[in-house]
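Feature request disguised as a bug: please show the residue count (1311) next to Armadillo-like helical in the output. Example input:
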Amino acid sequence: MDHRYPNLGDMLEYILKQHPTLLDSYEMREQKLLFPSKTYVAMIKFLLKCFESELAQNNSLGRSSEFLSSVERLCLLLEHAMAFEGSAELHSTASKALVTIGSYLPEIAHPLLTFSPYYIIIILLIIDSKMVASHFASRISWLKQLLNHVDMDTRESVARLLGVASSCLPVDASSGLICELVASLGGTNKRFEAQHGALCATGYVTADAVSKSPSISEELLQSTLKCLVDVVNSENATLASIAMQALGHIGLYGPLPLLVSESSSGIILEVLNEKLSKLLSGDDTKAIQKIVISIGHMCVKETSTSHMKIALDLIFSLCRSKVEDILFAAGEALSFLWGGVPVTANVILKTNYTSLSMTSNFLMGDLKLSLSKYSSDEKSEGREDCRIMVRDTIARKLFDSLLYSTRKEERCAGTVWLLSLTMYCGHHPTIQQMLPEIQEVFSHLLGEQHELTQELASQGMSIVYELGDASMKKNLVDALVSTLTGSGKRKRAIKLVEDSEVFQEGTIGESLGGGKLSTYKELCNLANEMGQPDLIYKFMDLANYQASLNSKRGAAFGFSKIAKQAGDALQPHLRSLIPRLLRYQYDPDKNVQDAMAHIWKSLVADPKRTIDENLDYIFDDLLTQYGSRLWRSREASCLALADIIQGRKFDQVGKHLKKIWLAAFRAMDDIKETVRNAGDKLCRAVTSLTIRLCDVSLTEASDARQSMDIVLPFLLAEGIMSKVDNIRKASIGVVMKLAKGAGTAVRPHLSDLVCCMLESLSSLEDQGLNYVELHAANVGIQTEKLENLRLSIAKGSPMWETLDLCINVVDSKSLEMLVPRLANLVRSGVGLNTRVGVATFINLLVQKVGVDIRPYTSMLSRLLFPVVKEEKSTAAKRAFAGALAIILKYAAPSQAQKLIEDTAALHTGDRNSQISCAYLLKSYSSTALDVLSGYNTVIIPVIFLSRFEDDKHVSGLFEELWEESTSGERITLQLYLGEVISLICEGITSSSWASKRKSAQAICKLSEVLGDSLSSYHHALLESLMKEIPGRLWEGKETLLHAIGALSKSCHEAITKEDPVLPGTILSLVSSACTKKVKKYREAAFFCLEQVIKSFGNPEFFNLVFPMLFDMCEAASPNKTGRVPFASETTKAESGDAEDVSVPVDKLMNCITSCIQVASVTDILEHKKKLMDAFLISMSPGFQWIVKMSTFSSVKELCSRLRTSLDESQETSLYAGITTFVQEIFRSVSPKVVECISTIKISQVHIAAAECLLEITELTASISAANCTDVGIKGELLHLLEIEKNEQAKSLLRRCIDALEKLEQVNAQTS
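Example output, currently without the count:
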């Protein structure tokens, strides 16, 4: 922006209107400030800008009187600002402004030498002393007073003004002023401010005096120099540095004379050498800066070789300093020693000059512009041979020692000094000759780890480019391009010694002992400690890479400046530079990023256009570097790719799309975390790009199709199948989005997509679930529940959502490729989720395509049926059964018939086959019921018979199926009874014991449900059963006996009617089974015998069976065996030929009870003794209470039969026999019953026993009992009544007692 400042005169006019007294002149500074100090400061700065602006506008012609008048008033305003009450900032600003105006003095004064000397007097009192002697004297006093100012900047500016003012004084006046100043240094005023001001003024005034002709006397100069030397030797570092500065100022106008003492004379630097060495090794940075610059000033006019050597030694002693400002000051001093610096003594002494480095500001600004206003008018500085020696010494020190030193601080110092020489003395012929060597050094230093060294080397490259000729400029550009592209080689290596720093401290961690790892020696020690000496080569490789990276960054700093000037010279290199510059802008190192960004801005005017034009080269570079062994290159390549692919069209990225995906996946699996993060970012970017390119609503259909052809197969093969979780998840997410947005465009890839998603259901499942399932049984987790949990998780996954999307786009043409792939996956797929998934997908697919699946039903049914049969997982078996059921719905009739028959045949197989049968039939009934209903004659018998499987799970499945398939059990069995009976008979006659068992149980169920409706088929069933009873025993054979009993109960009339002999045959068969010695089988035989006797009700059965029963009872008597086994002794494992000789007496007594029920009274009386013995045996203490319960029931049944016979019998002989038997029962059985009540503490036994006793007593009381004797049980009953807790038993006992009392009364009356 162009700032135009107002006219200086106008501004002053405005200010003076506010306060006209500003123009009043005062001899001293007692005036009062008319504005606040801060207002003054702002005012002065602005007026100075106006002054410089107007001066620049009128530099072609002599100044007008109006302008000079304005300058006069400005100076008066500045003098007014120096009042006592002003702030230190105000005084400093005003004094520096006076010096600034003084620096333009020749420009203003020269055209006015014949016009008006008054204006010159006002500006800086540079006038003829005769005209203003008194006024000048007052101004000198005024300036001397300001030398004691508290502000250092003000003191230095005033001292500079005093030196300028002294140039108009005669020699005597100047000498007097110098004497006064020197005297003040040795006086009593030891205030620092006073000494500092006096020293500064001494230097400026003496320097001016030396420059005049005639000069001051030799004696005065010697005394002044001796005074300054004494200050250097005796005072602190600050004052010593000011004294050295004064000596330097004096030396600017001529060589310093030898310092003469009483006995000898010597060079000043030699006298001060020891003190200066001490001061330069101190820690006062500002003092060291002043001292080293003053040494340079002292040598500007010096011709003494010894003097120069001392100066060089002092400056070179600073080569290991780590303070940047000191190094820059030393570089400036060397420039003065070299010669050809673009400043003169007048510039240094009579302007606001501070130093060359501050004036040029070469690190922040433009060097050419900074030093353009200064020029050197020195044609020759002393003898040329002395200067040649100095230059040679400096060059050898830099190139042979410092710049290739093993110490980084020495290399840094050498870089600063070489840059200073190149910058300040660049136009010197010697420097011009050395430019190629300087370029090589700076190129070498671009790889330094030290940032300052690197930045200065790059700055030096820029300066060399400006100074060089066309050939050198071309070589420099080529070298920089080589460095940036990595093709350049370092021409000279730095020799490593023990303390050579290879890495910056902390870069590669710490040693095994916790120490630092940076020097060559420390790295070698670590390699030896680890037992891997070759490790040092890897460290060196890392160091070389770091140097290469640093070279690129340093080259970038220099290149950014050269690029603007190189212009067309860079055009041939752009093709190789652009890709690398783009990549380096994403480098992990922020410094590299910034440096490359500077080059990019310098080279590229239109970044978007440049990238578009070089896009293929950029892609080639980035897709090569993503596989680099350097993690920085991999990370930068990914980040750069993520940015440049955004918004691209297919024709721009199509041929690179697959490689970009590959780069993203590789980076996501990188060993370096930051590279993985960059890979994630690239993955997100390329995902967004891919989805847009494959979306037909955003991209042309042909491009979308090509994009899909590139990306989808890659993602399915490389992405989803990857072993890296992040890659798999990202791939699945992309595939799902592609399937959602691509629509029908995904059909060509449907088979691959579906199979990949199905396989991913298992491969991407959390492996922890597999582990849990493996150990589920050990921790009590049901496998089926865990499987259902896994499937529910899978169905909520992105893979399943993608499969749902695929179902929506399937058409009949897609089936040609899809069905064979699905069939192959059914055969080879592994994992629960995959197998269930493929089955479910087939189910959904058939539902979607409907009748279009018919060409494939035969193949699918042949494939799926054995899979259902062999599948072990319940969930997978159900899923495949569901898929087969939906196939059945569209299968041809012949295929359907075969499939249903094969399914029904599974019920005769192992457990897995039976479960498969149940699942298949259930699926058929729920999915293809219209097909299945035509085959009920096949499946209903199977379902009914399979309900009686030994396995509870299997039987439960068929039980559920039976309930779903039938509306009423009786009706269904009647409808399909013939088929059921046929299947049962086949089962009984089969060689399988399990089939025999379930067939026998089915007969029991048929008998229970149908009753006598089963009569028409009893012959076939009985024939089959009776054939199986004889022979060896096998596990579960007792079910055949239960079936015979159940059939006898339901069809006894039909059996008897068809063949009267058959009941006896059955009885004989069952009776023989009762003699078997296997407990379970014998118990079943007794139970069956009881049922047969009761069912047929043949009185002859008593005579046929009772003798056998009695013999068994007698054999079981404790009197025979010595003891009766208890329950705990009879619980043996029953297997095959296991024997148990004990008789189930309770079952035996039940059979006796059934015999009593069907027997005639005559037969009972004939076997009364055996009956009594059987009762007494069974009620003996050795038997369990359950036996006694059966005995009580048998006795009650006997009493009931006898009571009935008494009522019906009129024959005296039969009546008498019954009466006698009843009396025997009363006498023999009653006491045993009472004994059971008193010995057994079970209320159930008490109730049954009391009922039995009541029956006996009442029967006895009902006959003529004149001959009955008292059995003595009344007293016991009374006692039992008292202690009985059960109310029902109490009531029965009380009735027994009443019956006994009644019997006693009858006996008393008859007697």
